Amino acid sequence: MTPTFTHEFNTPVYKGKSLFSTGLYINGKFVEGSDGTTIDVINPTTGKITTKVAEATSKDVDIAVDAAQKAFDTTWGLNVGGAGRAKMLGKLAQLMEEHQQELSALESLNNGKTFSWAMNADIPIAIETIRYYAGWADKIHGQVQETDEKKLTYSRHEPIGVVGQIIPWNFPLVMMTWKIGPALATGNCIVMKPSEFTPLTALRMCELIQEAGFPPGVFNLLTGYGSTVGAAIASHMKIEKIAFTGSTLVGRKVMEAAAKSNLKNVTLELGGKNANIICNDADLDQAVSWAVHGSYWNHGQACTAGSRIFVQSGIYDEFLAKFTEKSRALKASKIWDTYGPDSYQGPQVSKNQFDRIMGFIQSGKDQGATVVLGGDRNGTEGYFINPTIFTDTTPDMKIVQEEIFGPVGVVIKFEDEEDVVQQANDSVFGLAAAVFSQNITRALTIAHRLKAGTAWVNCVNQIHPNVPFGGFKQSGIGRELGEYALANYTAVKAVQVNLGYVM
Fold first, then answer.
1. What was the pLDDT predicted at 345?
2. Is 189 marked active-site?
3. Separation of alpha carbons 194 and 349, rounded Å
4. Where are the alpha helices (DSSP H) in 305-436?
5. 44, 354, 390, 395: least CB-packed within 10 angstroms?
6. Is 303 tagged catalytic?
7. Identified catalytic residue from 32, 128, 269, 403
8. pTM of the model
9. Which residue, among 393, 421, 386, 426, has the nearest Cα to 320 in the 3D structure?
C-alpha cells in the first residue's frame, strides 16, 4: 500500500475532507517509486511541508511507457471508437463537477492561489476543457481525395501512440486538462509529469480518471523532478510525441532532447512578456481594472500577464494615479488569506520563485527605474510579494525585457500607434497582447500588427476551450485548445486502393 494524504479543510469558504494516494500512478494503480524516495510538497502560504509524494526515476518512466504502449495496443487507441472515448471524457467532466469544491480547495493548497479564483475560474475552465474534447472524440476523421476512377484514395487521422506531457505549477489542473483532453479524445495513451511543486490535484485526478472508466495504462502520472523524469520523458525512444508548458529555457532543452532521441513531435507553450496597450480614448476605469487583473492575476504567475503596460501620453498621469490607487487597495485588503471570501492575490509558489522575483525587483531599482508602489514582501511567513509598479524604465532593462512571473508591472508612456507597435514588438516573446480603445478600427489595426499568438481587445486573460492558444517567436510551437490542438495528437495516413488499374 502506498501512503495516503488526508487533509481536513475547515475554512470560511469550504469545509470538507480530501484523501488520496501519494504514490505514482502507473497502469491503473498507485505504486511506490523504484528507489523508494519522496519529494516534500511545500505550502507556499507558510513555507512548511504539506505532505510527501513518491519520487519517480527514469526506471519508472520505462515502466509507465511499457504500460501505456500495452494499453494502446490492446484496450485503447484504435481499439476504442470515438463514441466510447467521448463517453469516458464526459464522465470525467461530470466527476470533476461533482468534486469541484474539493478540487478548488486542493488547488489553493497546491500552489497558494485563492479559493475564489480556483472555484470560479480554474476548475470551471478545466471542466469545460474536458467536456469540449469529449465532444470532439467521435469527430476525428480524414478526407477522400479525388485521383482517378480506378483508385480510391483517402486519409486517416490516427492516434500517435504513447505521448509524454510535462505541465507547470502555475495552473496545475487547467494545464493538465489542456494536455489530456485532446490526447485522450484522439486515442493516445499518456505518461505525464506534473510539477514537483504542485502534484496534489493531479494525484486526485488519477482517481477520477479511474472512476470514469479509462482502462489501466491509458493515463500514467509520475511525480518527479524535471532533471530526471522530465529529461527521461523528453528523450525516451518509445514516446513519439511530447507536449511541454513552462519556461523558454526548459523548452529549449525539451526540444533538444527530442531531436537527439527519436525526433519526436514537439509542442511547446512557453513564456511571455506581454504588452497591454491603453490608448487615449480607452474607457479609463475599465482599462485600469483590466490592467490590475492583467498584472496580478494568479499572483502574476501567468504566461499571459500584461506586465508591460503602455499608456498613451494624453492619459498617462491619470491612468498611473488610478492604477496605483487600485493596486494599493489590493495590497491593503486582499492578500494573505487564500481561503478568504474576498481574497485576490496569494503567495508565489516557492522560495526559489520568491527570490527570483525579488531579484528582478532589485535589478529594476539598480538600473534606475522608479518604484511607485510595492517592491517588497508582504508579511514574514510564506512567499507573499506586494503588488509592485515601476515607471521611468528604458527598453533595455531586465524588468522590461524578461519574464518576471510575479506581481510586477511596468508602466511605459507612448505617443502614437507607430511608437507603441514598435515598442510592443521589441521582445523575443510573442504569446499575448491587449489593446484598449473605444475606436474599434484603431484597436483592431493595432491588434493585427502585434506579433503575438493572442490579441485581446478591451479585455485581458480571457481563455476559452474552443479558442486556440499559443505563441509566436520564442513563446512556443503549436497551439493548445480548440480544434487546432487535435492536430498535435494525430498522424495522417494516406491510403490508396487500386480498383482495377493493371500495370
1. 87
2. no
3. 14
4. 316-333, 351-366, 398-401, 417-424
5. 395
6. yes
7. 269
8. 0.96
9. 393
